Predict the structure.
Amino acid sequence: QVQLVESGGGSVQAGGSLRLSCVASGFTYGRKWMAWFRQAPGKEREGVASMSPFNTTSYYADSVKGRFTISQEIAKNTMYLEMNSLKPEDTAVYYCAADLRRGLPLSSAYGYWGQGTQVTVSS
């Protein structure tokens, strides 16, 4: 019943921008931790950005800090990841996650996951 659907991925040249969206359903959005993760081929999944319930506090990986912004529209059950100044190193499948169960905000201990959306940044 719980579902997370990402969209907004695609191909872009280095220096460009993309905005990813995650539409949540099946639970009360706004009361749970939300996050974005990514996984590049041959690499482990890493936390990119996360936010506490009602976006009181947000966290970013050092690699994206200053370039990416996590936000939401509670009324639309939607979370966003605004990605600017994209680099080839940002190429990965990006996943939406919800409901942190334990651990650090950028840990992988989230209860629900989306299917992922591909982001490709060319040189």
Notes: Residues 31 and 53 are 5 Å apart (CA to CA).
